[in-house]
Amino acid sequence: MTTASRRIKGFTLVEVLVALVVMATMAVMAWRGIDAIMRSRDISQSSLERSTRLQTVLAQWEQDLRSLQDSGSVSALSFDGASLRLTRKAAQGMQVVAWSVRNGRLYRWESVPVQTVSALQDSYQRSQQALAQETSQLLALDGVSSWQIYFYRGNAWSNAGSTDDVVTDVTVTPSTPASGASGASGGSSGQATATTVVRRVLPTGVRMILQFDPTVSGQGGPLTRQIALEPT
User: Fold this and answer.
1) Whole-angstrom Cα distance, residue 139 to residue 136?
2) Theoretical Cys-Cys bridge with 151: which of 104, 177, 193, 203, CB 3.0 to 4.6 Å?
3) pLDDT at 224
């Protein structure tokens, strides 16, 4: 047997280079697949967390409105275009709650429960000051570009900032004729008196429409939530 026939053949340099290129390509493809899986997982986790937070905020919103209580001393429910304030019953009395959208964020503020009219009026005044300070409010949700509030009044939805909730009642009280006094025709000489009372009527429903910034929230389209108010 010759020496040439006993020689063991190996891989050539070209074959080694081709094998390295194939392995490197497979590694890059595998890494891209893993990276895509990780990104998808992070996006799904972020979406789940935001959805959970949104559900919590909506549950708190519904609880505030269903606990609405009119004290008769301050406005029980009002909206000025940017902030909604209401008075709600609590375990230790009544409290003022304010929701507002400022700088792309939805905030919530609440006062401590009080039991006197003067304390409730003071809380209502402090709520107006708190709305001007973001640090005194609880950040409920970010990525909110704007919102609209509508009240259900008179079998229709209307702008919450309108004055349709103001009702004027006029009561006419007949006069009582003086004893022995009579006119030429025998009628009473007195005049009837009219009493005018201005009162506010709470709506029977509240509709909230949230507009989201898709670059921040990742959610497209508005979110609408309607709450039927229980009579107080």
Assistant:
1) 10
2) 203
3) 93
Question: Which residues of the chain are under the pLDDT cut of 50?
Answer: 169, 181-188, 197-198
pLDDT confidence of residue 21:
86
Asked whether the CA dihedral 132, 134, 135, 138 is positive or negative, the reply is positive
The token pair at 19 is 């094998």
Q: With contact defined as beta carbons under 8 Å apart, do 144 and 104 qualify?
A: yes
Cα–Cα separations (whole angstroms), residue 78 to 54, 85, 94, 106? 23, 5, 16, 17
Question: In 63-104, where do the E strands start and end?
Answer: 77-79, 83-90, 93-102
Summarize pLDDT for 150-165 with one digit per residue, the tens. 999 888 999 887 655 6
Q: What's the token pair of residue 68?
A: 């609405």
169-215 pLDDT, tens digit each: 455 566 655 555 444 444 445 566 655 544 567 899 999 999 988 77
**Cα distances (Å, whole numbers) of residue 201 to 155, 163, 164, 167, 169:** 14, 10, 9, 7, 12
92 phi/psi in degrees, rounded to 5: -105, 15
- Cα–Cα dist 68/88, whole Å: 4
